[in-house]
Each structure stands twice: as C-alpha cells, then as structure tokens.
Amino acid sequence: xxxxxxxxxxxxxxxxxxxxxxxxxxxxxxxxxxxxxxxxxxxxxxxxxxxxxxxxxxxxxxxxxxxxxxxxxxxxxxxxxxxxxxxxxxxxxxxxxxxxxxxxxxxxxxxxxxxxxxxxxxxxxxxxxxxxxxxxxxxxxxxxxxxxxxxxxxxxxxxxxxxxxxxxxxxxxxxxxxxxxxxxxxxxxxxxxxxxxxxxxxxxxxxxxxxxxxxxxxxxxxxxxxxxxxxxxxxxxxxxxxxxxxxxxxxxxxxxxxxxxxxxxxxxxxxxxxxxxxxxxxxxxxxxxxxxxxxxxxxxxxxxxxxxxxxxxxxx
Amino acid sequence: xxxxxxxxxxxxxxxxxxxxxxxxxxxxxxxxxxxxxxxxxxxxxxxxxxxxxxxxxxxxxxxxxxxxxxxxxxxxxxxxxxxxxxxxxxxxxxxxxxxxxxxxxxxxxxxxxxxxxxxxxxxxxxxxxxxxxxxxxxxxxxxxxxxxxxxxxxxxxxxxxxxxxxxxxxxxxxxxxxxxxxxxxxxxxxxxxxxxxxxxxxxxxxxxxxxxxxxxxxxxxxxxxxxxxxxxxxxxxxxxxxxxxxxxxxxxxxxxxxxxxxxxxxxxxxxxxxxxxxxxxxxx
Lengths: 316, 284
Fold this sequence. Notes:
- Helices cover 35% and strands 22% of the residues of chain A.
- Chain A contains eleven helices and ten strands.
- In chain B, a hairpin with a 7-residue loop joins strand 1 and strand 2.
- Chain B has a six-stranded mixed β-sheet, with helices on both faces. Chain B has a four-stranded antiparallel β-sheet with strand order 2-1-4-5, with helices on one face.
- The model of chain B has no long low-confidence stretch (mean pLDDT 91).
- Chain B is of the alpha/beta class.
- Classes of the chains: A alpha/beta, B alpha/beta.
C-alpha cells in the first residue's frame, strides 16, 4: 500500500507538522531506496553462570529478512519473548547481529566507524516514559540529544522548538517533566528523538504503560510525523487499533517473521493470529464469528464502520 | 458479610495550596462474592477508593464498614482487615524482593504468625492457583518474565487467603497472552473460592468480558453503578468523562440507527455476533 502515494504528497512542503523545517524530512532524498535492509539476521543471547562462564545461548532473532522502504509505517506484532524488541535494538546498533547483516540507510551496522551516523539515522523510543527523561525542564531534555551531536547553540534551540511543536508539547517547554502525564512524557521523549532529525524512528511499545487517552495522543503524534515529515516509523505494539493504519505489518514468533503484509491481509487470518496468541481487532472478530455462522462477509474487515457497511450491503 | 462505604470523603493535602478532593461523598455496598469492575480515567479517584477498602488511606470523613463493623472505630484490628482484603497494586512485580519465588510468596502468611507447615501449604496453593509451574518456585523472581513475576506477586496476596481481592490494573504492560492468562486465572479463582473480586481496568473489553457489575468513577464521585449492559448504555456520557464503551456497543448502536433490529445492550463479541445473526435471519 501507500508509501509511493505518500512520497508524491511529500513534495508539498506547505503543511509540515506544525513548524518542522523544510530542510529536514525523513526521506532525505533517498526516495526509492529501502532504509532498512536485513539479510538472514540472527541474534544469540549468551547466558552466563555465576562464575561468568558462558552457559547456554538462546536464539532471540532467527534468520530474519527485513525490508523497510523509506517513509513506511511498519508495525511489528508478537507476544513477549518473540524477538521483536531484540530485532528493534539492531536498528540503531544497540545490538549487533550474531549472524547475517543489517543495513540502515545504506550503512552496515557492524561498521564501527559508522556507529554515530547510524544512531543519528534511527532514533528509539522505549516503553517506560520515566526511564527516558533526564532533563529537569522539558526543553532542556529535548535539547540533550542535539547538544551531544555537537549542534551549534542557536540551532539546538531551533530544533527544540520545532520538535516540541511537532509533538504538540511546545506550551509545556518550561514545565518539569515530573508533573506531566504518561502520554505527555512519551511525547517529550519522541520530541527528544525528533530533535536529532532521524530518518527513522523505532518505537518499542510506547503506549503499553499509558491510559487510553495517553495512547491516543502518542499514536496521533507518531502518525503525524510519518505523514507530514515522512519519517519512517517502526512501531512495536500489542494494541491492534494502532496497527490498522500501518502500511505493513510483521508478525514475529520464536525469533522468526511468520507473517507479513498489509493489515487487511494479516487480519484475514484470524485463526493463525490466535495461534500466535495475538489479539485481533474487535470488528474483525465480530465479522469472523458471523462468517462461522455462514454469513457471507469478506475477509479482513478492520473497523466497525467497514463492518456496518458490509452488513448493510448484505441486507439490501 | 460485605463492605459498606458511607458518605466517604478524602481530601489530599487538606489546608494547603495543593488541597484536592479525591473522593466526594461515596456510598457503595459491595456484597460478598461479586466480581466488580471499577473504571474511570486517570485521576478519577479509582486508586484512592480502593486504598480505603483495607484502611491504607483513612477517609477525611465518612465510614467504611467491613462485615458490619466500622473500620475507623477505636481499636479496630487493622492487621486482620489487611489480611482479609488483599490489595494488588499496579506493577506489583516491583515489590518482589526475596531470594526465590517460593520464599517471596511465604512472606505474607509468615507474618500472620502461622505455623511453618501452614505457611508452606498456603504458598503452594497460591502458586498453583495463579498457574505458575513448579520448576519456577526456586528461581529468583528476577529471572521470570513480566507476566510470571506478576503472577508471583498476586500469589503473595492469595497466600494470605483474603476474602476480598482487589487488583489495580493487573494487566497493564502485559502482552495479550499474559493479559488473558491473568484474567482467566482471576475469574477461575472467583469461581472456586467465592471471594469478592474488584478489578480496576482501562480496558472496556476486558471489563465487559469478566465482571458482573461496573462502578464508574469520575472526579472522585460514583457516576454509574450497575450491570455492564446498563452502564454501557450511557456510552455518550462515558465519552464525555474520558471513557468509552466496548467497541461492539458502537457497532450495535450504529446498526440500530439504520433500522436493524439488533440488541444495543450487547457488550461482547459473541453477544454482538449472535444478535446480528438473529437480525439477518429475520430479514431473510
């Protein structure tokens, strides 16, 4: 689906997410090149005994081929321990493959001389908002990243402003992060990543610890960044509502990518998803129950609106 | 046997600039053996309310009766109350501290002054009830997965053999599998032990699936109190206070609006599918 469509929209720079500058968009001119390319990527965790001798190895990621196009919104599903977070940590070289290769924006993550460039290309946001904020004031926290990249002072403040505006937290720039809600803290964390102008953002269950309102805030922010600034997004989540609008969905189980496709394709396989102990959107479930009773509904219904329309067709 | 709350008020930091009314004239009766869901958006007073049930917080005014006796009266045995009303906090796995799983679960009953045999019996029973495999009993709690750790923490409360089990968002941060496992175990416990279960949750779908009664909190007050079908009829009002009905409720109202003879009370996937199927059959 959509990435080509999005790129063509992309040259219209008029309405970039609330103030993002023209000189930065996630596509960075590599319009047709895949930003993330993994080939036979495997990763083993070593277990050590009490004396520090290697005891056993666990293969967390197993021969994964991964292709993400620039500007894509990719969702990764899988239950805990399926290897999705391990995979995600390869994208900004926190972990290096035991076997296989991973190229991020054309750079091999195992090439140590490129480490900082890779980290700058791919930013990460983690689950717990309280573990990611280090500043005592919101704008200082957001400025921390670019400051460490050696960005000149005026430029830092410019980036802080545009990043905070992009996530809708500019009014809170002088607040203490302690007093913010979980959703607001996550948006500050995202702004901190955006200030480093990455082409790609990897979010590892950014909404798992938030209430429903916080979840909506964070997901809207991420979607806007993807749509308006064309940042490539990899979103790891358990919430199906967050997956429905992705361009592509990957399902992981036991370190392998076991399903991939558009949300419609993926959610056509209700039984298979259930076998991986994953959730299915409620609308898909109702449609599936009706199909089992012999009602002639199409596969892959994702929203209640779609379901109501299909039912209406049946009735007439 | 029940919990009765009368005109309960709770004010944080009374008399300072930070004064906040967290509970406002709450009146509730929680009879034995019910499976109750408490919903409300963040800051609505749900957590404050449940901390009153075992006397962790003391109401600024009003009364809480446990089995007919006011827990605020002079000389009330608070220790006993805390073993009868078990409270599982959010992220309870952060409170695990012993060297291994089994010892951690023993901590509660040991402090009740029970014999070592009884302590062990209860620990085994509690770990069995949360469905943790025996091979994990001697492991450090930190070697376990998030869902397993949480089950150990719940077992620690169950080993006290409480009459009322209160769970504050027991599934937050878990994957769908961990969530279903924990909620199924809680439902089984409720059926087996006939204890009262009070479940605080943000997931309307989970609430609709498991509980028989919902209490909706808003700004420290009880806004609605009734069966899921009744409460979710007020889906528009629920939205105004930052909540929502289960997703199928919207579908059913949508279809009913277009003239379908469907049951707008349906709150679970199965109920919705049955009702739509019946409506389709009528048409054909």
